Amino acid sequence: MRRLLSLCVLALVVAAATGCSEPNAQTETPGLAPRGTTMTTVQPTRQDLANKVSLSGKVTINPVFGIVAPAAGQVRYLDVRTPRSTPTRPTRVASVWESGKAHRIDVPAGAMFAGRLVDDRSNVTAGMPIVSAKKVGYGLVAEIDGAQAYKISDALATVQAQIKNGPGPFPCKVLGTIAALPAGTIPDPPAAQPSAAPSGQPSAPPVAPAPSVEQDRTEPSEPTGMRLVCTAPASVKLINGASATLEVVTARATKALVLPVEAVAGGQGRGKVDVVKPDGTRETRDVVLGLSDGKAVEIKSGLTGDETVAVPGPNLPPAKPGGEDSPAAPMGEK
């Protein structure tokens, strides 16, 4: 009897131990972090930043480009003779007169006059294309759309080019303007006037007209769309029709205060960031944005540089129905 009682007690102890150990044998599944918990942070840093625009282009023989008026005034054209060889010096083709002062218009060396873009003695504005020219030899041409035009119109000083499966990158010197050009016109040279014979003497025989040199005349330029034309260094080998990429640096900033783009919400100069306080809570701040290279964005104001910023940045709330300032309807109401 005593032995049977001992076996029963032992069985109860084993059962109790087994029942207590079974729940601990299962590993608990880690739970998700509470909503809003900051997982990654970053501090602003300083670096040089450049804003760039990439254009698709091609190598082209004898590309046409436009030359603009340097000032507002009246344009007066000169009669330009067709050169017998590629000009090695600038060719004066017109002047823009402003308040009695003449602003000279030259076609650069290595290019030929290709047409007048407005009528002689027209009033023009500064920056308006008034002359077309044709680069003799190879150039790189990239077509531009309206959105790109306003980004790069004042930033053509630095252009880098890369030929697809070819040489590059290399600096590309910009020619003229990116504005679209109308068709050029080249007036015929004035006809030679016969010399008058003295009174009482028979008229001089008519002078035979000079032989036609029409084949030597420059053909007027055709209209173009908005495009960038630039030339490569002489050492770069170019093949007509080869594809190229042109990269225009539109702006630069030195030692700018920057954050990763993932840490900033917003755009067009205005944004928001979440600053993480020492106790782990977030504070959303408004910041003024500057340049961006696609990886980092310039913080022009709103941060001192000593803050800790959450990544990713804050989620902007969706627009409220009925307008931005309309109050949200309570739950259950429409």
Write up what this structure looks like.
- Mean pLDDT is 82; it is low at 19-23, 211-215 and 323-334.
- With 334 residues, the protein is mainly beta.
- The protein has helices spanning 2-25, 146-152, and strands spanning 40-42, 45-61, 64-68, 73-77, 91-98, 101-107, 111-116, 123-124, 129-135, 138-143, 159-163, 170-171, 173-175, 227-231, 243-260, 265-267, 270-276, 282-292, 296-301, 309-311.
- The chain is built from 2 helices and 20 strands.
- The longest helix has 24 residues, at 2-25.
- 9% of the residues lie in helices and 39% in strands.
Notable traits:
disordered C terminus, 39% strand, eleven-stranded antiparallel sheet, mainly beta, elongated, 20 strands, 334 residues, four-stranded antiparallel sheet
In short, what is this structure?
By secondary structure, the protein is mainly beta. It has two helices and 20 strands.
